[in-house]
Design brief:
With 299 residues, the chain is α+β, with helices and mostly antiparallel strands. The chain folds into two domains: 198 residues, no CATH class; 94 residues, no CATH class. 46% of the residues lie in helices and 17% in strands. It has eleven helices and four strands. A four-stranded mixed beta sheet has the order 1-2-3-4. Helix 6 runs antiparallel to helix 7. The N terminus is likely disordered.
Length: 299
Amino acid sequence: MNKVLFLFLLLSVSIFKIEAQEFNAKVSVNSDRIQGTNRNIFTTMERSLNQFVNGTKWGNATFATNEKIDCTISLTIAEQISDNNFKAELFIQARRPVYNSSYVTPILNYRDANVEFEYMENAPLEILQTSIDNNLVAVMAFYCNLMLALDFDSFSLSGGSSFYRQAQTIATQAQSNSNWKGWSAFDDNRSRTSIVNAFLDESLKSYRELLYTYHRKGLDEMAANSDRARTTILNALPALKEMRTVRNSEIILQMFSDCKLDEIVAIAGKATAEEKKINYDLLRSVYPASTMQLEPLKK
């Protein structure tokens, strides 16, 4: 791995545990599918994961307690391959508050079904001084950086760049271990590497501009002027259609749909009949499989 990139990761991600970090995360481990084994390993796994996500200092920004990113991370164990090796799927939901309201808006709603890892009971989960030597650590660190990137992008234009680069550094290192699943950039357009490469693709820069406009200029302005904020959001959506021509866009368009489509339908539902039709046609052209989800805009 490039030593400069690795040094950048080490400088940006601290293993020291202090109280005011970036996440208010609830991490759960579901082992209901696993029978006749040491159940305590899953209890310690859950505790270690919570300590890792909430206790690691992921970047240099200072977060007040009420500014922490609320997220729910569910690790469902699908198979115990051996005493210390597991197959699992990961479901992540992250949210950010909307200014001057009690409303929270989703920034990530994603399922990763390709997680395999080794876990030794009571072994600490941490990023070591020389490497990430565990795929579970790599996966969790990747998604923590992705959540931070999306959060920062929603507050300032391209504000999450450093966190996308950290996620890309993790992905680059993980690809060097052929036994770690879910990282290949070549045969899986939903891999973690494919995800972060799409976010950093200059030809998809308009997507990150959309995230900023949607959240900071749209949702955050709803309390002050709901009509103007709604118009701002709806006027930004044509960028989705333009992105469909870009090769790497499929994964982030799907992520946006999974996270935002219901919210957009609710926002557009308060527009004029003409605006609803325009946005129904637009969104249906981008997401043809989501006709039922878009149905309220036809009323």
